[in-house]
Here is the input.
Amino acid sequence: MWKIDRERRKNNENKVFDKLLSEDESETLEFKKSTGEWREIIETISAFANTGGGIILVGISDKVEVLGLQIGKRTIEDLTNKIKENTDPKIFPTLSFENINGKNIILIEIEESKSKPVFAFGRAYKRVGKSTLRMSKDELERVIIEGKKVYWDEQICEEAKLEDIDKEKVREFLKKARFERRLEAIPDISVGEALERLHLNKNNKLKNAPILLFGKNPQKFFLQAKLRCARYKGTTPITFIDLRIVEGNIIDQVGEAEKFVLSHIKMAAKIVGFERLEVWEYPINALREAIVNAICHRDYAYSSDITIGIFDDRIEISNPGTLPEPLTPEDLKRKHKSIPRNPLVANEFFLIRNIEQWGEGTNKIVKWCLEHGLREPDFEEIAGGFLVRFYAPDDILSLIPESGKINLEELGLNKRQIKALEIMVNKREKFTIKKYTETFEVSKKTAIRDFKELIKKEFTVKVGDKKGAYYVARENVPKR
Here is the structure.
């Protein structure tokens, strides 16, 4: 919030308001023409109190023209009373008369409330950009939960019983946690005791977290706990080539989502220094980190799904729920605090190394993309959710480093042999003598001689005899 510095304003009043009036309406600044818009003013006060605070200037048009106000003796008192009477909990903002170029206005300063949500006329509002919007039922529930300091994954799942937990999944988890993080090994521990030691139940009642992590059917209790994966045709989300809904527990969802992505992105290969090198279109570790983050940090109070959209030129991974305050998308590309939305889920993911270290995942995503040869990914908050966008390379072969490459011509290979070798390695194609003669317009005798040299230098292998014989690239080419 851009706050008014009252001491500086006493000595430099015009410059302070010049600063305010040089800005457009925003998340922390609103203009109103007159006190006749008092209902809209109170709704905006609710929005600012529920978000990060803000300033309302009354007597200014939305085109930032100073209109001024006719101010009577009771103007401030009447407006103050209307605000108190129509907000719950009651808001007591700072109101003051101000003078700009000889015209009177009212300045209202609103601090972020410590008791959220703040209602106006029985409804709660939020600030999105320069708009004041009514909170949805899901958003209101989330704000209430956060206000009580009880995270969603820590709430009791009243209908769930121990029979709803997959015992084998719990044992697999404990085994992996012992291996990855040296979690204390407890022989013959029961599933109920294991959940208790992991703080996943309370008074013999299961919390939401263990249903997500180890439930036999988590979607029975939380229909929204799934991923919607799609491979679209082209660059727009209109026609899809493949669509899959990933359900089950959220630990298994990570692997299933990763499999879907790998089945729809490109891999290229070429010979570098006598070695066949392969490269994925995107850094797999960065994609996996983004999937884990979406599953681990999504807002499960929302009814919408996590989505993974694969396009010709990009991959977009989005999840319900904006970033926890005070984080911004810009913070994610620099060192920042870890503020897990679901601390129990985050802790269990950490124990099995699905999360390496809290607060560094997005930094690593950026690092891995740059090291892979891609541009930086985008982090965005959109329509009540969070999105990571990865950009595809213009030329996937350019991602393979050239260092160590040996000039094949220096080893006695001609241009035909080099080109044929590239086709066999990069496209995994095979050559018959007939195909070779037709491709390079040479005689059968020349084709046989070329392949004898390639076999001698251990670049290719002949498969079969007589008419059915063909040649393929040797997968284990010896290094120089």
